[in-house]
Amino acid sequence: MSIHYYTVGMAGHIDHGKTSLTKALTNIDTDRLKEEKERQISIELGFAPLDLGDNISASIIDVPGHERFIRQMIAGVAGIDLVILVVAADEGVMPQTKEHLDILSFLGIKRGIVAITKIDKVESDFVELVKEEIKDQLQGTVFSESPLVLVDSLKEIGIDDLKNIIKEELHQTEERNASGAFRLPIDQVFTVKGQGTVVRGTVYEGTVIEGQSLLVLPSRRETKARQLQVHHRPAQSAVAGQRVAVNLSNVTKEEIERGDVIVDKEHFFVTDTIDISISFIPSLKYPIKQRSPVRLHLGTSEVMGNIVFFDRNEVTGDVGEVLCQLRLDEEVVTKRGDRFILRRPTPTETIGGGWIIDPNGEKYRFSDATIEMLHKKKEGSQAQRVAELLKERKYLRKKELFQLTSIKEEQMPEVMSEDSNIIEILQGYSLKSEQINLLSIINETLVLYHQKHPMRFGINKAELVNLLSQSAPKEWVIYVIEDLIDEKALQRLGQFVSTSDFTPSYPTQWEKRIVQMIQRLDDDLLEVKQWDEYGKDSGIPKEVLDELKHYLLQTSKLYVLDEKHFITKQSLQEVIQTLRKNTNQQFDLKVAKDSLNTSRKYLIPLLELLDTLGITKRDEQNRVWVRDTIE
């Protein structure tokens, strides 16, 4: 059977016995710093493995309880699956316990256990009274229906009962996704002599393998997982829910910090503007005004920014859900659905928390329309979000789509089955309706082009792509054009693209004059006038004349004698027949001149043209016939 991995957090007021309880459960003292030993309080996060059997492997995170270390506490509980709320029997629920409860609620923690510690500090007759008092205090919180366990960590009373309850709760807890893109928010960075930079964190999702290429966000530094350790033991891999230490290559300790995120794919947004759904605590000390400075706690990161409302200018208390935006001073790494905590920097207090609607927020107007738009973003199904996004962007590569919607790649078949208008093409996605619309635009563009330039074989493909890229992404346009060519819906000749039924022809309004002009060219045989003279004599505009020349040359109905003189195919063939009739297999310039009775002005370009066409071959001063017809 496969092993199931979870992270269990210890939360509660300072000096209520979290670290002692962790040691009783795991036999590991998580207070490792000298200052923690001296002051007998937890300052940094502590970690210990908890093997529960039944194929369950858990990591315990012991978070600091003191209000001065609340940022460490948030960084610790942000990645947990189950919380043990530690409440000392002799003190009950304290102010910091309540703030921890608010934080856990905002982070969406759904399962918890209440461990009542220090039961030796109260008379046995009062234990039941303590339990009832704690239950009353926890009404309306995630712990209101949670099991309560009485423990004495030093005497290890109730420890086995607690382990069994932890096991039961984890059996009912949904595992984190180990198959998606890997994400590890970093909560510790240090160096190991001879090894280099090591980071630690709880794997939020996905799997990391030793030797795997990784990316540090938001700096986008490329690195590799040289070695992995899970609770100080070498490991080949680590999966969602596990605590892991990763030895990174090509990254110094100074180039990475707590709050950075290690990923294996760019499926996560690096952003400083995020649309959010937030709930505020009822007991705010002071109102939260429009654009107030706030401190965002997201994963293990802590960033200053401003809160922007679109339907109010301040919040004074419990107003229910508020849809608004955070504009941050620094970039964070996130995706839709991530939970966060907001704290006021001064006076310091937790003011609320919620979840990210859109990590790719933009600047919006203060209006009901903006709130309505945010509601649609928040409430829309995955298929609706994808469809709305593709209406706006027309086409999105897979990485962009997964970033913008926070949908996993393996979920896309279900999304596409829900909305059959969403289609997968060219390493990305578009809407079938948008593709049909693009087909219409391509056809209209080509028809107009053919009407304007009837003698051209079509539009240059690069020019067509450039024209259409104003209304659709370039790579999508290229894909659709190539697909249409393959399906014979369009035709291509060299670099030119046209509609499937198009054939170049003379423009209707100039056709008669063009035919007459070409007849004059035919009549003049070899001794033609300059090209522009024919156009002038025929009354054909210069731009039409240039188009005509290009068309006749492309169709081999006209050949170049020099840059100003041209001969028609019919005339050239007549000249070749005359020359062949009056010369032997080999002839020189004088013989050719006498045969055609023409001047060197026309003869030299003619003979060079015959050599170019492979009709004759030059042999010193003579020419040798190869064939006597134009291919």
Automatic annotation (TrEMBL):
<dbReference type="InterPro" id="IPR015191">
    <property type="entry name" value="SelB_WHD4"/>
</dbReference>
<dbReference type="InterPro" id="IPR057335">
    <property type="entry name" value="Beta-barrel_SelB"/>
</dbReference>
<dbReference type="InterPro" id="IPR050055">
    <property type="entry name" value="EF-Tu_GTPase"/>
</dbReference>
<dbReference type="Pfam" id="PF09106">
    <property type="entry name" value="WHD_2nd_SelB"/>
</dbReference>
<keyword id="KW-0251">Elongation factor</keyword>
<dbReference type="Pfam" id="PF03144">
    <property type="entry name" value="GTP_EFTU_D2"/>
</dbReference>
<dbReference type="InterPro" id="IPR000795">
    <property type="entry name" value="T_Tr_GTP-bd_dom"/>
</dbReference>
<dbReference type="Pfam" id="PF00009">
    <property type="entry name" value="GTP_EFTU"/>
</dbReference>
<dbReference type="InterPro" id="IPR005225">
    <property type="entry name" value="Small_GTP-bd"/>
</dbReference>
<dbReference type="InterPro" id="IPR009001">
    <property type="entry name" value="Transl_elong_EF1A/Init_IF2_C"/>
</dbReference>
<dbReference type="InterPro" id="IPR004161">
    <property type="entry name" value="EFTu-like_2"/>
</dbReference>
<comment type="function">
    <text>Translation factor necessary for the incorporation of selenocysteine into proteins. It probably replaces EF-Tu for the insertion of selenocysteine directed by the UGA codon. SelB binds GTP and GDP.</text>
</comment>
<feature type="domain" description="Tr-type G">
    <location>
        <begin position="3"/>
        <end position="175"/>
    </location>
</feature>
<dbReference type="InterPro" id="IPR036390">
    <property type="entry name" value="WH_DNA-bd_sf"/>
</dbReference>
<dbReference type="GO" id="GO:0003746">
    <property type="term" value="F:translation elongation factor activity"/>
</dbReference>
<keyword id="KW-0342">GTP-binding</keyword>
<dbReference type="InterPro" id="IPR015190">
    <property type="entry name" value="Elong_fac_SelB-wing-hlx_typ-2"/>
</dbReference>
<keyword id="KW-0648">Protein biosynthesis</keyword>
<dbReference type="Pfam" id="PF25461">
    <property type="entry name" value="Beta-barrel_SelB"/>
</dbReference>
<keyword id="KW-0547">Nucleotide-binding</keyword>
<dbReference type="InterPro" id="IPR009000">
    <property type="entry name" value="Transl_B-barrel_sf"/>
</dbReference>
<dbReference type="InterPro" id="IPR027417">
    <property type="entry name" value="P-loop_NTPase"/>
</dbReference>
<keyword id="KW-0963">Cytoplasm</keyword>
<dbReference type="InterPro" id="IPR004535">
    <property type="entry name" value="Transl_elong_SelB"/>
</dbReference>
<dbReference type="Pfam" id="PF09107">
    <property type="entry name" value="WHD_3rd_SelB"/>
</dbReference>
<protein>
    <recommendedName>
        <fullName>Selenocysteine-specific elongation factor</fullName>
    </recommendedName>
</protein>
<dbReference type="InterPro" id="IPR036388">
    <property type="entry name" value="WH-like_DNA-bd_sf"/>
</dbReference>
